[in-house]
Fold each of these.
Amino acid sequence: MVLLGRFYQGLYIVTFVLGALAVGALTAPVAYHRVFTEHRFKPQLIDAAG
């Protein structure tokens, strides 16, 4: 088992959290799109946007 110093523990946690946020930011639009297209909300979205 490797013990990290306090700085490297903090760096690891920050890197891990930022990676998790990046994955969420990249996958959220796909999930949002699937929810609205599966429920046939596309015409209402187009009317609201236009």
Note: Helices lie at 6-38, 42-49.
Amino acid sequence: MNGFRPRDARVVITGAGGGIGRATAMLFAQHGARVVCVDIDGDTAAATASDCRSKGATADSRPCDVSDAAAVVALSRCLRADWSACGVGVSVICPGVINTPIPTRVRLVGPLAGSRDRAVQAFRRGHSPDLVARAILGGVRRNGRLVPVGVESTVAYRLHPLVPASLRELLARAGSRR
């Protein structure tokens, strides 16, 4: 799968309703890919697909909640194992702090409750969605299994194996509580 060329490839972009996902869908569409825009908000996914089509690309949309990061990684590993012999590549993107409206749309709980203004300010200092989309395109072209974007994400990715499994599981459970 090395040397991936987006022209006429079918790509599925999660979170395509806005921010990084939208920028990525638009970039792949610009490079001639057939894009499937997936987002928890079906209307925004459809709007992105429509914008891709207005640029001459083939695009469709589907609503889907992919908020369970562990499930997404597990699914991607299964898809890579099952379909790699057929030329299908799957890349999981691990963005760092990206300038998107995420902190204005999520419910902050626990120690983060009441700190929305600080979160909004922190995200404004993050990488642009367009920069992340370019990193994603590069990662997919290399058939990267996992594509960290930004220094903070790269450091976390490199340190991940050093964290004991029991602590990773505890953090995953704490992060999945709503």
Note: Residues 69-83 form the longest helix (15 residues).
Amino acid sequence: MTTAGLPGTTPTRPPATAPPPVSLDWHDGWHFTGGGRCVLCNRHTVLRSHAGEDVHKVCAERWLARNPGKDRFVSDLPRGRRRGTA
């Protein structure tokens, strides 16, 4: 039973919406050169960000979703033609 709208009750807030999902593309093997503790959850990880931080990909994606507009973690450049080729 809901009490919203009854005298003497506090109106309830609608549920907070979850931040939109963020998906990083870390296809370069360089990301698998970690071997320390994740800077966000402090658990062991073998992944490394572009800035050299040991971090789980999912932790980085969650951080980005919670911090829109920040670029602490970024995706690799899209695969495709290499520079200098015709």
Note: The radius of gyration is 20 Å.
